[in-house]
Amino acid sequence: MNEKDGKIKMEFIYSETCPDCPPAKEAVERIKEDYDDLEVDYIKAKDRADLISKYDITHIPTVVINENVEFVETLTEEKLRNRLEEIRNG
Fold this sequence. Notes:
Layout: E1 8-14, H1 21-32, E2 38-44, H2 49-54, E3 62-65, E4 68-72, H3 77-88
Parallel strand pairs: 1-2
Antiparallel strand pairs: 1-3, 3-4
């Protein structure tokens, strides 16, 4: 969690042509409904070369949570929920 505001910050980095991105984005959207403390930014990879470089992203979708790359290419709702609970519970 972010120490300043108690929020979990997620960046979902995707491409409009990525076949794995829509189902991953849907999983993030379902999860977001259950977490009041989760803030999600949906970021098109082509628009943010700075983040691609910062996180050394080579595949998408990529999920970054609190500035840590957590998931690359494969994302399941169950794994994401489990990771968020780990972060929440410290």
